């Protein structure tokens, strides 16, 4: 608060005045934490390169802070790159009590951070379906902690039935940290092993919810370890036996798997279960060990006998669709991309909401193409905002976009 008071006083003071005339009342240490913008990754010089870019992007701010540290004897600025703020402050900087000419001032910490809690993956798809006025339910397990309760509450507040979510008192909710590059693309860092979702057991499944589903949508992450793998397979079989369509988005996250080969084997182990599969170009290359994802013959290799619809997403360029009767491509919606997190899940929510309303779309190419235009618009509107959840559009927003944007 002393720093805020100082900045307020400084902004109101005449230009050219002596900085000491508006000196801080007590000493202030300003510690700048890690950057939240990652432009360079997976290289030996990534840290240094990102620091240099950060200083370029925020040249005026850092220049002002450097001036402050030189102008005042009682202000210390610790720039980024010096260490993680929490450790730096607790172990090296924090002085507990300041002695200022016989006046003792207790130390205090005022902090801000840029981490925003979000739901990812299937939760986004569920929220998206619920937000597009179709009924959705979520099955899974979270920790009996603040993150778990937050996720359950957020789903409920957004029309997603959360009665199938279990709370494990002995394990934590899994966390994923997403860093954004300047072009809106992402990188992920996960805190799991073991987390509550990995410990879900078959006998803990809510079969009543599963049997009511028209479409049962799932990913591949729950296939990595037992007992969750067996629970996943049992849930899919129960849904299929009850007459639901099975929808599969592999959602490849290699850092979570023991190896690339185990990821490939795990993803393909339930491939033939699905009636509908949504896959990205990168995932095609991965599953086919480097083959061209734009070659229809390569894509057709992934088409199994019971598959009704195979969808290949191409980001801003739209998507391709393959069925036994027809195949084609639907152009995407061109927008200013801010954050790609949740775009694929929004696409899935868009197409599944259309299919849940009328499954006969699968036999009518013209109407299927219209449904895919709707799904493409869902994904496009999502990348225009930050975060997987806040950026998800409503049904009306998507319909308005389709009217106003040529696709």
UniProtKB/TrEMBL annotation:
* EC numbers on record: 2.7.1.4
Q: Which SUPFAM superfamilies match?
A: Aconitase iron-sulfur domain, Ribokinase-like
Q: Which GO terms describe its cellular component?
A: chloroplast; cytosol
EC primary class? transferase
Q: In which pathway does it act?
A: Glycan biosynthesis; starch biosynthesis
Q: Name one GO biological process term.
A: carbohydrate biosynthetic process
Spell out the reaction equation it catalyses.
D-fructose + ATP = D-fructose 6-phosphate + ADP + H(+)
Coiled-coil regions in this chain?
none
Record keyword Kinase present: yes
- Key words of the record: ATP-binding, Carbohydrate metabolism, Kinase, Nucleotide-binding, Transferase
Extract the GO molecular function terms from the UniProt entry: ATP binding; fructokinase activity
Outline the extent of the Carbohydrate kinase PfkB domain: 134-394
Q: Which Gene3D superfamilies match?
A: 3.40.1190.20
* Family in the record: Belongs to the carbohydrate kinase PfkB family.
Protein's name in the database: fructokinase
